[in-house]
Amino acid sequence: MKRRTFLAGTAALTVPLIGARGAVAATAAGSPSGTLPGRAEVLDTMKLVNDCWIGANADSGDNGWARATYHSGNMYHYRLAETQRYVDYTRGWAEAHHYGLIDGTSTRVADNQCAGQAYTDLYELAGGDSKVAGIRASLQNMVDSDGRDDWWWCDALHMAMPAFAAMGAHFGGGFTQTMYELYDDAKTRARDLHGNPTGLYNRDLSLWHRDNNYLPGAPKGSSPNGKPVTWSRGNGWVLAAHAKVLAALPADDPHRAEYQSTLKDMSAAIAAVQRDDGLWSTNLSDPDDNGGPESSGTVFFVFGMAYGISAGLLDPATYLPVVARGWNGLVATSVNDDGVLGYVQEVGMAPGPVSADHTEDYAVGGMLMAGSAVASLTS
After folding, report:
1. Helical ranges in 145-292 per DSSP H
2. Which of 72, 64, 31 lies closest to 368 in space, CA to CA?
3. CA–CA separation, 207 and 294 (whole Å)
4. CA distances, 368 to each of 75, 199, 255, 327 (Å)
5. 8 A C-beta contact, residue 65 and residue 362
6. Contacts of residue 67, Cβ cutoff 8 Å, sequence gap at least 6
7. Given pLDDT bands bounded at 50, 70 and 90, which one contains residue 379?
8. Please, how many CA atoms are within 13 Å of residue 10, restricted to the half-sphere of its CB?
9. CA 145 to each of CA 104, 109, 138, 345: distance values in angstroms, whole numbers, following the listed order
10. Which conformational region is residue 61 in: left (phi greater than 0), alpha (psi within -120 to 50 degrees), or beta?
11. Does the pLDDT of residue 256 top 80, yes or no?
12. Sorting pLDDT into bands at 50, 70 and 90, what band is 30?
């Protein structure tokens, strides 16, 4: 898939919340329940969404970041449901691409390395070093080089960090230290348009800017209403990356505390701007900037915060209702009766228009990750 391009148009689309399971009009009284459904109900929703996706996509797709994110989510679903056809679907995809990466083992592009997450999942199920030979070689090249400024956009954290963490867990070496150096560069030293090392993480907001074009003071650094641009899905990528990495890192990793602290700070900032319908808008700092509801940011927020609760990082009394409203809101607003996950913003790099009937593979993968994490909190 080509590098993301900006979506033309800035006007918000006004769409009724109809056609979804249990959907209510945006102006109706009440909001989604702050209580999680039972485990069986969560599994039913995951099955509906995943079966719909697979049924509509006999071709399991390319090995770019978007489809790879779906397959990562599909593996979360498989580990939870143990349904053979789910793992067969992803195994067939991986074999069709010979467990390879776009541009081969010389690539340093995080997007190209995203497929390594699903390849690692398949390796952990049945072994076979050839499954991870490509991703291991690609990341080893980065370990062995001096460059640490590859991650200039926040999405890169989700695309590459989990593979680094997995390679570190399985093969040791410098994978996790190199991962931290790349992460720290993105967080604190990514340069603004004047070459100043400011980083993409806004500590005042506890949120991330997508890249230096959206930093405060940059030409795209303010919404049409003069507020910061903190893209919902971009922050979803980052929160999901922290959850995946923390799940793989050893307890004594020297940077574990920083990852935990950032996940907690981000979760507090994200929870504070949850919409009444349980979802999040496309710009976390400006709900009027293309508006919402938007599903792809929401699924990763639910996933990251549900993980945080399970891992003992987030207070259940505070965050369980947030996670529950997020999940229940997705089911009520975004999941149609046929299983299509709607209200997904198209591929982009900033807040953009959302429509009720638009879906994407990466959002379906995120929904499956979210369901898996939510199921761990249910009985």
Report:
1. 155-171, 175-184, 232-248, 256-271
2. 72
3. 17
4. 9, 31, 28, 11
5. yes
6. 1, 60, 61, 93, 361, 362
7. confident
8. 9
9. 17, 14, 11, 36
10. left
11. yes
12. low
DSSP 211-229: SGGGSTTSTTSB-TTS-B-
Q: What is the pLDDT of residue 189?
A: 96
Segment 305-309 mean pLDDT: 98
Asked if 209 and 215 count as a contact pair (C-beta separation under 8 A), the reply is yes
Closest CA to 309 of 370, 233, 234, 237: 370
What DSSP state is assigned to residue 27?
T
Q: Which residues are catalytic?
A: 155
The Cα–Cα gap between 191 and 179 comes to 19
pLDDT average, residue stretch 254-268: 98
pLDDT, mean of residues 227-240: 98
* Residues 6 or more apart in contact with residue 361 via CB below 8 angstroms: 53, 57, 61, 66, 67, 69, 70
Predicted pLDDT at 28: 37
Structure-token pair, residue 358: 């638009």
Amino acid sitting at position 40 = A
Residue 131 contacts by C-beta under 8 Å, 6 or more apart in sequence?
A: 94, 99, 119, 120, 122, 123
Length of the chain in terms of residues written: 379
Tokens describing residue 239: 């929160």
pLDDT greater than 60 at residue 237: yes
- Say yes or no to pLDDT of 337 above 80: yes
In 3D space, the residue among 339, 346, 343 whose CA is nearest the CA of residue 368 turns out to be: 339
Query: Rounded to an integer, what is the distance from CA 359 to the centroid of its chain?
Result: 15
Give the DSSP H/E element, type plus range, for residue 201: strand 201-202
Looking up tokens 């691409």 gives 97
In tens, the pLDDT along 171-230 reads 997 999 999 999 999 999 999 999 999 999 999 999 999 999 999 999 999 999 999 999
pLDDT of the residue at 24: 33
